[in-house]
Give the backbone structure.
Amino acid sequence: MVRHLPQTSKAIRVRDLILGNGDKDIVRFINLIFVDEDILEKSWNSFVKYADKKLSFTDCSTIELMKNQGYSASCEFWWRV
């Protein structure tokens, strides 16, 4: 795969917007939450429990992370290409 400079610079810009880069003009606006062993186990249990609901493992992980952080609602947007 060939990497083109404009695409790489866009990717770096997105990374800076997500994580910040120390520049006061680019502040971090997303809080990353990582899945630990407890959340992983709860996610798997939910995945098995709700298999008939056609939730993905990622869906179940998101739900468990939200519960852990005290969130009670979620909204999802998607489209078909």
User: Anything to note?
Assistant: Residues 35 and 80 are 28 Å apart (CA to CA). The chain has two domains: 1-30, 33-81. The longest helix spans residues 5-19.
